[in-house]
UniProtKB/TrEMBL annotation:
Xref: SUPFAM superfamilies: NAD(P)-binding Rossmann-fold domains
InterPro entries reported in the protein's UniProt record: NAD(P)-bd_dom_sf, SDR_fam
GO cellular component, one term: cytoplasm
Name under which the protein is recorded: Oxidoreductase
Coiled coil: none
MF-aspect GO terms: oxidoreductase activity, acting on the CH-OH group of donors, NAD or NADP as acceptor
Sorted UniProt keywords: Oxidoreductase
Length: 263
């Protein structure tokens, strides 16, 4: 996908991976709408790249729709949506002690926020004039590819993101919309919080957000035929595409892309 002169919207864009990616998009010539629940921080990032900063809670579909509408009003279109916002919750990891309000908050941001963002991105892209390749990216995690014992609820949301993004990719390909998922390892973000020293003490390297922004650029500039790819980002390695095992059998006869229904 060509980036120069195009428009990107980034959720969770005020810090971490979102901020690093917004800066990278701007450096590639994109106009960027920075979206975050912390509106002041989003505006600060946007000011540094001559972009637009907006406050938005991605777990609220009305706020998501309003943010995309403002992006188009301010920047004239939408070519790339990077659905990056995510959180962790504070609990022991013992599923028997899980607070259900905390559970709903985790899933509402980490999974619902991606679904709301993808739905709104597709509708917005369809409504905007213009041509050329477009893309929707979402941040998942290694916890979306393997069991993550310290936080099964986080793993639940990220597994959902991986399955959802892989499933919509072939449906959107005929419209020139590529879909990719970014699956980082341990990274210096708000999700990690103040645990970096503890993590590094046990021998786990912590990546900087800029390393994940490299993976994001790899995904968004990948050939269109690579849509549906999950890009794994690990310390000291370039981003690489995850290979999933095929599940053979007659059930797969039903597993075909769904054509868009025009009204």
């Amino acid at each position: 996908m060509k980036l120069d002169g195009r428009v990107a919207l980034v959720t969770g864009g005020a810090s971490g991976i979102g901020r690093a990616s917004a800066l990278r998009f701007a450096a590639a010539g994109m106009r960027v709408c920075v979206v975050d629940i912390d509106g002041e921080a989003a505006q600060a990032v946007a000011d540094s790249i001559d972009g637009v900063g907006l406050s938005c809670d991605v777990s609220d579909p009305a706020q998501v729709e309003a943010a995309f509408t403002r992006c188009v009003e301010e920047l004239g279109g939408l070519d790339l949506a990077f659905l990056n916002a995510g959180i962790t919750i504070h609990w022991s990891g013992d599923i028997g002690s899980l607070d259900l309000d905390q559970y709903r908050r985790s899933v509402s941001v980490n999974l619902d926020g991606v679904v709301y963002g993808a739905v709104t991105a597709v509708r917005t892209m369809r409504s905007c004039a213009g041509s050329g390749e477009r893309a929707i990216l979402a941040t998942a995690s290694l916890a979306g590819l393997v069991p993550w014992h310290p936080d099964p609820v986080y793993s639940l949301g990220k597994h959902g993101v991986v399955g959802f993004m892989r499933s919509i990719a072939p449906n959107l390909a005929p419209e020139g919309i590529s879909v990719h998922t970014i699956c980082p390892g341990i990274t210096e973000t708000g999700v990690l919080g103040d645990r970096r020293k503890i993590v590094e003490r046990i021998g786990v390297p912590v990546m900087e957000p800029e390393a994940i922004a490299d993976a994001v650029l790899t995904a968004v500039t990948a050939p269109a035929e690579q849509t549906g790819t999950c890009w794994v980002a690990q310390h000291g390695k370039p981003a690489w595409p995850m290979t999933f095992a095929d599940v053979a059998g007659p059930d797969m006869r039903l597993n075909v892309p769904v054509a868009r229904q025009h009204n």
